[in-house]
Structure formats: C-alpha cells, structure tokens
Amino acid sequence: MKPTTKITVRKIQIGILLGMAVIAVFVWVAALSENRGHLLRVSFLDVGQGDAILIEAPNGNRVLIDGGPPSGKILSELGDMLPFFDRELGVVIATHPDMDHIGGLPAVFERYSVGALFEPDLYAGNGVYEAMEKHAEKESARKIVARPGEIIRLDKNIKLEILYPEHKFAPNADTNSSSVVVKLTYGNESFLFTGDLPKEQENALAEKYGTALHANVLKFGHHGSKTSTSEEFLTAVAPEYGVVSVGSENKYGHPNQETLDLAAKENVEVLRTDMMGRVVFETDGVTLIKK
Predict the structure, then answer these.
(1) pTM of this structure
(2) Are 239 and 290 a contacting pair, CB within 8 Å?
(3) Are 71 and 81 members of one domain?
(4) Which of 112, 161, 189, 277 has the most CB atoms around it within 10 Å of its CB?
C-alpha cells in the first residue's frame, strides 16, 4: 500500500503546483489587462530609420500607422507594448509604399489579426508592397482607399480623421506625395501624422484647413528632412511637440538642421527616437503627458 500512497501524494502535490501556476497566470493577465481609465496612449515606436506609430484608445481599440523597415523591430516594439495573448489590431494605416514605412507590415499581418488596411490609391510594384497586400488578403483585412473626410471612431470623443490624399496616383507617381495624412483628436488634445508628405502638399493643406490643422503633437514629415515641414505648415499646425522618427547616424543626415532651427524658432520641442528611443504620450483629452 505504501507505493500507492506515495503516488497519490505526488499527484496531489503536482495538482497543487499546477493550480498555483494557473492562478499566477490569471493574476498576471489581469495586471496586463488593467484598464487605463480614460487615457489615450500614442507611441512613436523605435524602429530605426522609419515610421511606426501605435494608437491605443481607452476601450482597447488600436491603430498602427506604418510598420517601419523590414528589420523585425516592429514586432519587438509591439511585443513590448501589447500583452502577449492579445493579437488584435483594429486598423493599420500604410501611409505610402516606401520600404521604411511598410517594410515591417507583412510581418505584422503574419503575427496580428488586422481588421482593416487603409492606404493611398497608388499601386507600387515592389516586393514588400505586394507581400503586404497578399498578407492583408490572406488575413481577410478590409482594404480601404484613404480619402479626406473619412473618420475612424476609436472611442467616445476620440476620432481619427483622414485629411489627405484626395485623388488616385499614377503608378510612377512620387510616393511621398501620396502620403496619407491623419489627425487624431481627443477632447482638447490632438496629434497630426503626415508620413513623408513634401512641402508643396503641406502648404496646400495649410491653405485648405488653416488653423483647423492645429495639433498639440506633430509627427515631422520625412524624418525631419528639409523636403518637409515648411514654415507655413508649421505655423498652421502650431504644435507644442514635434516628433522625429529617425535612425541613429542614418546615411541621409536626418533630421536636417534647417528643420531643427525652424522648430526652435516656432518654440516646438523636438523629440527624436534616435536619441530617446520610443516616444510615448498619454492624454485624458484635457491634459497631455509625455511619458
């Protein structure tokens, strides 16, 4: 009888250990899923020389704007920001089909479930663009051409509005000029994301929208290049912060000193991912906090 008793005791011990492990997992999951109250979080991810912005609404809705270059850093960044068990992204916005903006998106579609893909009306024949499109179709993500006036409702009093582009582009068109521009608004606080939009199109937006372009946080176009962020545009937006998503010691010399000097002239605090890593803001619609 003694061997049977030992086996029974061992089973009980294993059962207790397993039960404790399950409880520990549930506690951990509950901690990860903790409600952030009324806070909207906007994270400019550290993906090197490229763009990737994660928007998280208080109710859990998420939007990813661009996916950085095909380095794998986007998956690392998303893994740090999101619970491992939650693989849902409501919307992905591919601002334009350049490698440093969509290079990481095929991997995102492989790892995460995506509800909809917004992109400009521009066909790009490069392999990464085609891979992104195929993965989007495989995941049954709705493909939507971005048009001005379209609004994505993320939560109560939180909206993402598309401001540009207004037309279809020829296959050989300048990809930067096709960049989708979106404005995120929550109460009194707002963010403007411009992809790599050049100055000519920026100025057209400033003329069209005027002071309605105002945003507390501006994602500087084209990684702070001198081809973007005109004085007219920056005056219209009048941001408190300007975020430059850029790789350390990049070969392009981004951000350009002219852009930095203009930001200083307009009293815009510049935050750079090459110096700070991931840049995170949280807001309740009244107060903006830089984390």
Answers:
(1) 0.88
(2) no
(3) yes
(4) 189
